[in-house]
Fold this protein.
Amino acid sequence: MLKALLDIVFPPVCLLCGERSLKKGFCEVCLVLIEKERITTPICSTCGTPFPSPKGVDHECGRCLKERPHFKAARSAFVFDGRLLDAIHRFKYGGDTSLAGPLARSALNALDQSSGCIIVPVPLHSAKLRARGFNQSLLIARELARLTAFPLSYNNLKRARDTGQQVGLKSDERNKNVAGAFILQDPAAFKGKKALLIDDVITTGATINECARLLKLAGAEVFALTVARTVKV
Ligand SMILES: [Zn+2]
Ligand SMILES: [Zn+2]
C-alpha cells in the first residue's frame, strides 16, 4: 500500500534513460534494447564466444581448441554493444553504482554449470580502486552472491601489480601484461572447490584466464561469468 502510494508520488525512473518506468531498474524500452544484445546459442562451449551463424549447436571455437584456457567454461550474458554498453559505461565510468543490481540480475541466466561455486570478483589494483572509488566486478559479484546465495570471496585473490590500461593492446600483449599480476593469499581455501570468476566485460579473456590459472593451481574447478563480452565483427 505504502509502496503503491510512493510510486504515485515518486514514480520510479529508468536508471538508464531517466524516463518513467513501471519497474525498478530499466524501463521497458531500455530492457528491449538491452535484450537485443543478449548472447544466444550457438556459442563456444568453453569460452562462450558466440558464433556468427545463428544456426547450429554449441561447440568449441578454434582458439580454445588450439589452446585450452585455464577455466572450464566462461559465459557472458550480452555482447558489449548498444544500450548495454551505455549501461556498463554509466556504471563503471559514470559512477552510477545503482546499476550493479539490474546488471547482475540480467546476467543471471547466463549462469550454468556453476551451482555451489565460490564467487570471486576480478580484483582491481588499489590505485585504480582509489581513483574509481569502487570495484565494478565486486559490486556485480556481491549482487550475484545475494541472488544465488553462493559464497563470496573478495580478498583472497588480489592484484599484485597494476596492469595499466589494457585497451589498445593486442591479445598476446595482454597475456604478457597480466602474467603474474595476481596473487592468491590463501590458495588452500579453493582446494577441491568450484570457483566462479566475475567481471563486467571480457575482452580477450587474458585477465580472467590469468586469474583462472591461479585458482586452478590452488585445486579449484574454475568458471567465469561476465555481464558482457566484446565480439569481433
Ligand atoms: Zn530507459
Ligand atoms: Zn572458445
About this structure: Strands lie at 73-79, 118-121, 157-159, 182-184, 194-202, 221-229. The first strand starts at residue 73 and ends at 79.
